[in-house]
């Protein structure tokens, strides 16, 4: 009986410390020092939330740069991927279809391979990034669709260069480019 | 592999090794009730907690008392986490208006978090309220890790003591683990992660008007605080469905590096803590070496599997189920680390890994989660294998086996065998059951040998208290929720109880001073012997199952066969 009482008190006390005080304390601290990040790194335009700097969005119109394929069409409820194994026929067909689509839409230099992140879906279904190379292959299409002249096209390439992130601290992770931020910049080119 | 990729691996393993003795020494001071850097700050909190729960930390228990306290405490957690899920709809902090959870999913999740497995049949963002995640799951992230440390401490004491039946006070071990180790590290990591962009708030889900005029609902919540302890306590349960591949859980390569480091940090440091508490740091480093050699071997095989490509796709980088910001090397490094430690969080989809990399992940779990393993759990699991190894060595030379000055006799060996066989039996028996029943087969996402791998991985993950998955398997069904819950309970307490029994028995023995005939357990010969025993036990038990799953998958893939 005494052990049961001790157990209950210990459990409730530890719940209070680790389940209430700890998360509330962390919320207080980070809301104070990183308020924007703690809230989801939201992008707000004319007081409307138009996205987060961290999560990808669906882009299907040809005037926007395409993101990676997503097995949940960038719907975060819930996040997730295909879970296709290495011998899955469906995936083989999907990759084939995506490659055809990419070539049909962008007419890339036929000597170049389509970058693999444009053919394979991400784990979260929300991957915001593509490689610089994938973006460059879409420049002609986007420019043409928007009726850009040479100067505007140059500005677009400039945007790609500016937004390309090197590996963090020069060594961690991969070089990458945020598609949503790139499309926002593309919209600004007049 | 490119040079930057190799540098990242070396940097990771180097930093892990460098931090091991530093944290190991701190853990020794903090967990053994000595003076340390945080004692002046938190000592009064520790004493206050003892006063509130009315225990005397010096009032030690025998192994039965220790085990009963542990089981009662875990039972309380299980009932609580189950209850708040099935009544979730009526509880506060539920801005998304999520309904009550089904009883079998709630039971599976409660067992899963109490046993430090963190298998997730549900999707966090569409199933659980902020209240359940925080007051239910975050708490179990802490106390299940503390439970693992407590059991290890009891075992270490039993080795360093003689002629007593006392192995420590369970409540003191839990309190010290939480407030001196898990909480301070979590506060540090949570803030660091939030600085990289991991969210932490209590807002409603955010309705986003996308650039193309669509709508996207972004889930919110107190994420950083949970992600921190999920990594530190080798728990691994994601706040969101896609775990640490989700940009809100793991937004940058640096957040990835930190999270990955903390998967292995405490399990690695505890080897040195072990050495210090038993008076032989050399023994601690020997155990660290065993774990590190096995980790690196697995990593090399997995990297080979992933970089040698898939014949179906030529020489393309295999990016299915991987995030651009992490690339291949960080996905493989994570997959190997998270399965070696019984963490189970993922930053890529293990189901999509090449057959060899997926097999390394599975094998890491099947070998008993002793390659670093869970906090505390990995090392007490390793001690079980040590007992088996000295027993075998003793048979070979015809001498009573000894370890750290204690004679290893029939009782210890019997208990060690139970602790090794319990999880192994779960994996093989339950997988066999699932692969011949309609309920089991209906959950499969991939046809062919990969389908068997999905089932095999699920029960390995449950029995090894890992929690990662070949997640294509639809396991949120009554059949899988119940069988996996049973597997997790057997895999956790079917090891803890025999291990505590061993501790109780060892503590009562007298110290046998080393003689010229003593078989040393801190040299290279022993390191090699221990690795061999782990591999032989694992190999004999699982080779047939693995050859029908990932091995066959690999061979068929080389022939270009798809399903």
| SS-derived structural category of chain A | mainly alpha
Average pLDDT reading of chain B: 96
- What is the terminal separation of chain A in angstroms? 77 Å
Instruction: Say how many strands of chain B there are.
Output: 4
Counting copies of identical and different chains, the oligomeric state is heterodimer
Radius of gyration of chain B: 23 Å
Count of DSSP H/I helices of chain A: 7
Percent of sequence in beta strands of chain B: under 5%
Largest sheet of chain A: 2 strands, antiparallel
Percent helix of chain A, as a range, is 40-55%
For the biggest β-sheet of chain B, the strand order reads 1-2
Give the number of domains of chain A. Answer: 2
Secondary-structure element series of chain B? HHHHHHHEEHHHHHHEEHHHHH
- Beta-strand residue fraction of chain A: 5-15%
How far is it from the N-terminal to the C-terminal residue of chain B, by CA? 30 Å
Q: What structural class is derived from the secondary structure elements of chain B?
A: mainly alpha
Poorly predicted residue ranges of chain B? none
Biggest chain pair interface: A-B, 95 and 123 residues
Descriptive keywords:
heterodimer, A: 7% strand, B: 563 residues, mainly alpha, two-stranded antiparallel sheet, two-stranded antiparallel ribbon, 18 helices, 4 strands
Topology of this protein?
The complex is a heterodimer of chains A (190) and B (563).
Chain A: H1 2-33, H2 35-38, E1 42-45, E2 48-52, H3 89-106, E3 129-130, H4 132-136, H5 139-146, H6 150-163, E4 177-178, H7 179-188
Helix pairs in contact in A: 6-7
Chain B: H1 3-31, H2 39-53, H3 63-86, H4 103-114, H5 124-127, H6 130-160, H7 170-196, E1 206-209, E2 215-218, H8 224-232, H9 253-277, H10 281-307, H11 327-340, H12 355-366, H13 377-397, E3 402-403, E4 406-407, H14 410-435, H15 438-441, H16 449-463, H17 478-507, H18 524-558
Antiparallel strand pairs in B: 1-2, 3-4
């Amino acid at each position: 009986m005494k052990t049961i009482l001790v157990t209950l008190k210990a459990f409730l006390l530890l719940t209070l410390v680790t389940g209430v005080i700890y998360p509330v304390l962390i919320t207080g601290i980070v809301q104070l020092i990183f308020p924007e990040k703690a809230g989801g790194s939201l992008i707000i335009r004319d007081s409307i939330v138009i996205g987060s700097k961290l999560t990808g969005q669906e882009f299907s119109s040809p005037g926007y740069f395409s993101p990676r394929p997503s097995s949940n069409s960038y719907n975060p409820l819930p996040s997730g991927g295909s879970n296709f194994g290495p011998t899955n026929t469906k995936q083989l067909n999907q990759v084939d279809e995506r490659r055809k689509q990419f070539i049909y839409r962008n007419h890339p230099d036929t000597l170049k391979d389509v970058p693999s992140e444009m053919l394979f879906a991400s784990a979260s279904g929300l991957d915001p990034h593509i490689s610089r190379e994938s973006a460059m292959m879409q420049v002609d299409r986007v420019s043409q669709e928007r009726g850009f002249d040479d100067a505007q096209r140059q500005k677009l390439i400039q945007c790609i260069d500016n937004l390309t992130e090197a590996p963090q601290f020069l060594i961690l992770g991969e070089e990458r480019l945020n598609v949503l931020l790139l499309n926002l910049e593309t919209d600004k080119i007049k | 592999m490119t040079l930057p990729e190799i540098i990242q691996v070396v940097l990771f393993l180097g930093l892990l090794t460098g931090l091991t003795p530093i944290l190991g020494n701190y853990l020794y001071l903090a967990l053994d009730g000595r003076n340390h850097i945080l004692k002046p700050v938190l000592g009064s909190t520790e004493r206050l907690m003892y006063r509130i729960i009315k225990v005397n930390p010096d009032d030690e228990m025998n192994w039965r008392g220790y085990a009963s306290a542990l089981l009662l405490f875990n039972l309380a957690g299980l009932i609580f986490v189950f209850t708040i899920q099935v009544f979730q709809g009526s509880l506060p902090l539920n801005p998304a208006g999520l309904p009550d959870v089904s009883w079998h999913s709630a039971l599976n999740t409660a067992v899963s978090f109490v046993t430090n497995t963190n298998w997730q049949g549900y999707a966090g963002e569409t199933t659980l309220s902020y209240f359940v995640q925080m007051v239910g799951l975050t708490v179990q992230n802490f106390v299940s890790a503390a439970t693992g440390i407590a059991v290890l401490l009891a075992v270490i004491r039993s080795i360093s003591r003689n002629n007593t039946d006392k192995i420590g006070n369970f409540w003191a071990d839990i309190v010290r683990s939480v407030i001196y180790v898990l909480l301070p590290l979590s506060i540090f990591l949570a803030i660091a992660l939030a600085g990289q962009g991991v969210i932490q708030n209590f807002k409603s889900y955010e309705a986003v008007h996308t650039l193309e005029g669509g709508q996207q609902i972004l889930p919110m919540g107190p994420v950083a605080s949970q992600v921190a302890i999920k990594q530190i306590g080798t728990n691994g349960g994601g706040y969101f469905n896609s775990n640490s591949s989700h940009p809100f859980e793991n937004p940058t390569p640096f957040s990835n590096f930190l999270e990955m480091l903390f998967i292995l940090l405490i399990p690695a440091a505890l080897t040195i803590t072990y050495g210090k508490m038993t008076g032989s740091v050399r023994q601690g480093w020997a155990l660290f070496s065993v774990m590190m050699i096995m980790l690196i071997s697995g990593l090399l095989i997995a990297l080979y599997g992933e970089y040698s490509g898939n014949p179906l796709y030529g020489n393309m980088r295999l990016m299915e189920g991987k995030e651009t910001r992490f690339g291949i090397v960080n996905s493989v490094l994570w997959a190997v680390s998270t399965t070696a430690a019984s963490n189970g969080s993922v930053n890529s989809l293990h189901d999509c890994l090449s057959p060899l990399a997926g097999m390394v992940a599975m094998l890491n779990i099947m070998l008993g989660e002793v390659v670093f393993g869970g906090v505390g759990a990995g090392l007490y699991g390793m001690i079980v294998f040590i007992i088996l190894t000295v027993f075998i060595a003793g048979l070979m030379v015809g001498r009573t086996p000894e370890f750290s000055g204690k004679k290893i006799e029939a009782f210890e060996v019997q208990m060690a065998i139970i602790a090794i066989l319990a999880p192994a039996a779960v994996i093989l028996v339950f997988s066999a059951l699932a692969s011949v029943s309609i309920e089991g087969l209906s959950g499969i996402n991939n046809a062919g040998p990969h389908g068997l791998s999905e089932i095999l991985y699920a029960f390995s993950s449950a029995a090894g208290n890992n929690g990662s998955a070949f997640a294509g398997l639809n396991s949120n069904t009554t059949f899988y929720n119940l069988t996996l819950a049973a597997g997790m309970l057997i895999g956790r307490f079917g090891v803890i109880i025999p291990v505590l029994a061993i501790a109780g028995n060892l503590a009562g023995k007298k110290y046998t001073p080393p003689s010229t005939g003593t078989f040393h357990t801190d040299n290279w010969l022993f390191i090699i012997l221990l690795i061999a025993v782990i591999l032989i036990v694992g190999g004999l038990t699982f080779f047939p199952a693995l050859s029908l799953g990932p091995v066959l998958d690999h061979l068929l893939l080389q022939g270009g066969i798809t399903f």
